[in-house]
Amino acid sequence: EEEHETQRFDPGAPSPFNLADIRAAIPKHYWVKNPWKSMSYVLRDVAIVFALAAGAAYLNSWLVWPLKEPYDDSHYWSSSSCHNNCFCSVGFSGHGIFSNDPRLNSVVGHLLHSSILVPYHGWRISHRTHHQNHGHVENDESWHPMSEKIFKTLDKPTRFFRFTLPLVMLAYPFYLWARSPGKKGSHYHLDSDLFLPKERKDVLTSIACWTAMSALLICLNFVMGPMKMLKLYDIPYWEWSYFRGGLTTLDRDYGVINNIHHDIGTHVIHHLFPQIPHYHLVDQSDATESKKTKS
């Protein structure tokens, strides 16, 4: 019977429910934004990052050498994870779900995004394009399959730095600088077709913040030394519609780090309704799951 059901499933068939059905299943209070609650998550993440860095600096001595190596190993992973939390928090600012105040969202977004060398407005705008075109093979901004034709046009350095481990871990900075293969422009260029003319002032503000953070990191390299900076900062670093594109995303269960990463693994509902605060993601996913399974 299960095999028969699998054979009957048609991934190209229209969904038996629509976006309005999913929205109707979400209680109204899940749409309410609480800036104090959002800020509490930001402060938690920042406090953890600084605490981990302080621990690494304190244990950077042979007097406590039995603790140094195991701490470093765990510090690299956990600090990187917490930097990702800051990135997630900024993403919520970019979606406008951190608070109802665009100015507060922008301030928090610039502070956190610049700290990890990501231009806030540039990424906010391109990420908006990604959400508006999710699941679209040609128009999706960042997460779309590369055709064989485009792949064959890439030069050897581009293939090497984008697709060869461990360099593939640096793909995101390459994406910010030159977008995805087959697309033109940059998150750092005011005339990029990523941005509307009215958005250039915002992009320029973010580039200025990015430049200031880069200058700060260079100064810290001279003050603290490149090896310590490497340790504390560098290592941790079909027929389409909006609705159907959102349904092609996948939820991921990250176990014990679900909460640490602000439950961003609930990606289906986040893509369908990016305006809902992250601390409601799990509950609203459960609320809409019954609608999807009944249909």
Automatic annotation (TrEMBL):
GO cellular component terms attached to this protein's record: membrane
Annotated ranges, domain Fatty acid desaturase: 94-283
Localization annotation: Membrane
Biological-process GO terms, alphabetical: fatty acid biosynthetic process
Location of the Fatty acid desaturase N-terminal domain: 3-54
Single GO MF annotation: oxidoreductase activity
Similarity field: Belongs to the fatty acid desaturase type 1 family.
Domain of life: Eukaryota
PANTHER family from the UniProt entry: OMEGA-6 FATTY ACID DESATURASE, CHLOROPLASTIC
Swiss-Prot/TrEMBL keywords: Fatty acid biosynthesis, Fatty acid metabolism, Lipid biosynthesis, Lipid metabolism, Membrane, Oxidoreductase, Transmembrane, Transmembrane helix
Annotated pathway: Lipid metabolism; polyunsaturated fatty acid biosynthesis
Protein name per UniProt: Fatty acid desaturase domain-containing protein
Keyword Metal-binding annotated: no
Transmembrane feature ranges: 46-65, 160-178, 203-223
